[in-house]
């Protein structure tokens, strides 16, 4: 059961020759969620041999170009590739207007349904769920309405031991209940406790994505204990004033968020192109939160 | 005096891991002209170490996304980089509307002047000129108003021989006239013919860009004798019917255009992603016009 994030772009607004603008791809058990879509995202997907057609859900944090300008080409490519499955886009109100305004110039109707789900960025909400996973929006603090996303697996059922099914001849109907935690009551009335029949399920895994924002303590409770926290770190802490003015976060502040959330791992990215040595972001953050990685395009991070 | 074209993107509508959508950069004597601007153009400029700030004129052939989607990011990056020099964009009417519609979402005024020059694509016109170069629009045949561009150097003045200036003590005022072709009349009335005083100037160089289009014989006269002709070749000739229906050109047809125009060299690009072996495009074209190159991203072609 895969649960891994691929970094498709790690620059902030100005891309460099090494770093494309922001986009992440989360593979949660072979369901693919695209998170932000900076210019060139479709080329990065091809470069890292990730199949465009597997993406059905795109989450956009805010309308700034370094998080959205790849959408136009991607939507167009889906059309050319003959896509028929609907595509769901989750984002702030203004994004839908921008896309609709844009699509009127393509002059051809998309051959697939584009379903837009508007997110209110001021409060958290459950914005997506399926059998295995749910996605919560995380209110962020930026110059335009912006939200992050918490992807978390739903608690799984307990794993029933095959030999116990044989031993007690447990019928299917009861297997369903036992997986949910029920004990087994035998015909004679004897009770076999659930703990003898099952093993506990794998712990649900989680990934939180926070870009762009000032540090927002209000979301700490929501991301408490998250396995991987991606948090933007546009500036080094020497530039904390600039970070505050531009509604961004410093590397040290991102590490404080990870520490206070009790995250398993911190990924930092969205680096301003003013800095030459990205390793310094990592060093700064590690002073506060050791398990930090300053990401590069193409990096893959897995939660075991 | 440089006169060279860098290929920034060579795919058609669907980019691949190797080929970005269409964009060319012409360096004509250290003046840089960007021609079309597919998604990722700004990243390609950085990748090939070409300075964004040197571009003051952008020519867009038509509004299709694989020729325009890089504009949004480029215009935004210029703003972030503190650009102050005006930026000139030449393109069909609809492009201006598209850009204006788009810019209203950026919510910040550009810090530089964006000057849009509307091109009528139905007939040729002089759309740009400076001291050294002029640009003519070339009417093309596509599904939306589309034009190509002919960049050609203006005829230069004759090169006066330094030793003749000394020998006859020619004053500056007369040097100007002699460079333009005048003979030298000495005080006594004797005439020194211009051919004894000067060498002929370098031949003006030229580059024609034709994408996207059905083969258009109507422009042959305009591009007659061009040094380098770039012509789209989206399809192989086996797919000539498809090329016609989609208003594109086959590799063989592009070669016929080069042959009939008496071009020096033919560059072909804008290859459909349906073909695996791009070398076959080159082979097909070479049957008709030997000096053909199927271009790759990053290729540089110089006119000596």
Quick description:
With 304 residues, the first copy, chain A, is of the alpha/beta class. The first copy, chain A, has helices at residues 41-47, 65-68, 71-80, 93-103, 162-168, 172-179, 194-197, 240-245, 251-261, 279-286, and strands at residues 3-9, 23-28, 31-35, 55-59, 87-91, 114-118, 126-129, 133-139, 147-153, 159-160, 184-185, 191-192, 198-199, 206-210, 228-232, 265-269, 292-294, 300-302.
How are the elements arranged and paired?
The structure is a homodimer of 304-residue chains.
Chain A: E1 3-9, E2 23-28, E3 31-35, H1 41-47, E4 55-59, H2 65-68, H3 71-80, E5 87-91, H4 93-103, E6 114-118, E7 126-129, E8 133-139, E9 147-153, E10 159-160, H5 162-168, H6 172-179, E11 184-185, E12 191-192, H7 194-197, E13 198-199, E14 206-210, E15 228-232, H8 240-245, H9 251-261, E16 265-269, H10 279-286, E17 292-294, E18 300-302
Parallel strand pairs in A: 3-4, 4-5, 5-6, 14-15, 15-16, 16-17
Antiparallel strand pairs in A: 1-2, 1-18, 2-3, 7-8, 8-9, 9-14, 10-13, 11-12
Fold and architecture overview:
- The structure is a homodimer of 304-residue chains.
- Chain A is of the alpha/beta class and 304 residues long.
- Chain A has two domains: 3-156 and 202-295, 4-Layer Sandwich (Metallo-beta-lactamase, Chain A); 159-199, no CATH class.
- Chain A is built from ten helices and 18 strands.
- The first copy, chain A, has helices at residues 41-47, 65-68, 71-80, 93-103, 162-168, 172-179, 194-197, 240-245, 251-261, 279-286; strands at residues 3-9, 23-28, 31-35, 55-59, 87-91, 114-118, 126-129, 133-139, 147-153, 159-160, 184-185, 191-192, 198-199, 206-210, 228-232, 265-269, 292-294, 300-302.
- In chain A, the strands form four sheets. In chain A, strands 6-5-4-3-2-1-18 form a seven-stranded mixed beta sheet. A seven-stranded mixed beta sheet of chain A has the order 7-8-9-14-15-16-17, covered by helices on one side.
- In chain A, strand 3 (31-35), helix 1 and strand 4 form a beta-alpha-beta unit.
- In chain A, helix 9 (251-261) packs across helix 10.
- The radius of gyration of chain A is 22 Å and the shape is globular.
């Amino acid at each position: 059961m895969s649960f891994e994030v691929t970094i498709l772009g790690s620059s902030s607004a100005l891309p460099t020759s090494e770093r494309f603008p922001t986009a992440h791809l989360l593979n949660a058990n072979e369901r693919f969620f695209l998170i932000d879509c900076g210019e060139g995202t479709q080329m990065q997907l091809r470069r890292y041999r990730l199949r465009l057609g597997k993406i059905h859900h795109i989450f956009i944090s805010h309308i700034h170009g370094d998080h959205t300008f790849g959408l136009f080409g991607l939507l167009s490519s889906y059309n050319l590739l003959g896509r028929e499955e609907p595509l769901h886009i989750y984002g702030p109100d203004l994004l839908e207007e921008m896309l609709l305004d844009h699509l009127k110039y393509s002059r051809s109707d998309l051959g697939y349904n584009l379903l837009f789900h508007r997110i209110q960025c001021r409060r958290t909400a459950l914005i997506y769920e399926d059998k295995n996973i749910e996605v919560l929006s995380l209110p962020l603090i930026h110059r335009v309405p912006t939200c992050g996303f918490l992807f978390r697996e739903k608690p799984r059922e307990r794993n029933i031991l095959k030999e116990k099914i044989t031993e007690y001849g447990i019928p299917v109907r009861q297997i369903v209940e036992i997986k949910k935690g029920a004990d087994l009551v035998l015909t004679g009335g004897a009770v076999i406790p659930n703990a003898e029949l099952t093993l506990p399920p794998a712990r649900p895994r989680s990934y939180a994505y926070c870009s762009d924002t000032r540090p927002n303590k209000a979301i700490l409770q929501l991301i408490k204990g998250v396995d991987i926290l991606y948090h933007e770190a546009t500036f080094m802490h020497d530039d904390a004033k600039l970070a505050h003015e531009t509604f961004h976060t410093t590397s040290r502040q991102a590490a404080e968020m990870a520490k206070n959330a009790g995250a398993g791992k911190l990924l930092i990215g969205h680096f301003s192109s003013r800095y030459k040595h990205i390793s310094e972001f990592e060093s700064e953050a590690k002073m506060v939160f050791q398990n930090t990685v300053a990401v590069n395009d193409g990096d893959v991070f897995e939660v075991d």
